[in-house]
């Protein structure tokens, strides 16, 4: 399927440093070393509801990585999926009395509009679960040839014991996996399973649900195999970074890695796993079930500048868990007003050190809050908020404007 239009990406006069990221699997800050183009996979949405700020924070977070790589002189190949057939989507479609295809198309389109407004660089490969079915079947056949799948009634399961590296992505002990698994779509207690942690790779047809033909009978793909199939096909083995929200650390990313390890022995799925924090509202993590979602589209519809939404998100480190408040948005609107005033002067405090410092903090685990602080210091010096306006650099505003756009995705 098509992604969304790419915003302009200005080139900076200097090259940024190589990008280091916190790797979930090793728990360390690791410098990425792309061979050829940098390859990124970020798990996409299940389009049953509009984009909330938790989603937006994740995609803006990985957009910083995309930008930091480009600013370091790398080409980037970015793939993302859309889980356009899955239980929550079908349940929601039945509940609101709408065709599931129509619901998925409508919400995917809204997501595209939200990402466009937030100036998130689009993926090069944007693939739906439905269109990935041939890739999924091919991958399951590989797993089957390796003796790693078995049938329970009409469903096909993946044996987690087939992957000797199973558990290395999350680093979670088995007890923790067993505890989390049922909360995140797993079915540890189903009779007939060989290991409680085994996951569905092909779900046999249920009455009233859509299905597609396969060598194992009609059905549809499991969620984990969808991402594994898309990523290994479109990016190849050992791609640079697998990203997503921290709720995907287990089981989703562990299972994706497991599928790929068994299908392509000796090749890592991703070289590194990066995870964005969770956003809360009214004291709890934003989630459909809690009903405490703040939608990007709703903010846009109330004439909020999307750049203010983006700035409010950038003020939090991508890995931190934090709570959204309306005050943060009002603050961001005020800040942008002040930044625009400084940029309108043309001249300002020297831009060159700001450009270097901002690229530096972003290359160190995407520290956007530090980058925002550095820009704020330049604005304060330029406007003379301490009574000493510095207008020594005649090209300052142009340079800072390009920096904000290229590095932070803020077009003022
Ligand atoms: Zn995924």
How would you briefly describe this protein structure?
Helix content is 41%, strand content 15%. The protein is of the alpha/beta class and 412 residues long.
Give me some keywords for this one.
412 residues, 41% helix, single chain, globular, binds zinc ion, four-stranded antiparallel sheet
Overview of this protein structure:
- This protein has 412 residues and is an alpha/beta fold.
- The chain has helices at 53-71, 87-96, 100-117, 133-145, 174-180, 223-234, 249-263, 296-301, 306-314, 326-344, 352-363, 368-383, 396-408; strands at residues 20-23, 28-31, 38-42, 76-82, 125-128, 149-152, 155-158, 199-204, 219-221, 239-245, 270-276, 279-281, 284-285, 322-323.
- The chain contains 13 helices and 14 strands.
- The strands form 4 sheets. The protein has a 5-stranded parallel sheet, with helices on both faces.
- The protein is globular, with a radius of gyration of 22 Å.
- The mean pLDDT is 97.
- The structure holds zinc ion.
- Zinc ion (ZN) binds at residues 43, 81, 227, 252.
Query: Major beta sheet, specifics?
Result: 5 strands, parallel
- Over all CA atoms, what is the radius of gyration? 22 Å
Terminal CA distance: 30 Å
Counted by DSSP, the helix tally is 13
So what's the CATH class of the domain at 20-280?
Alpha Beta
Low-confidence stretches: none
How is the CATH topology of the domain at 20-280 named?
Rossmann fold
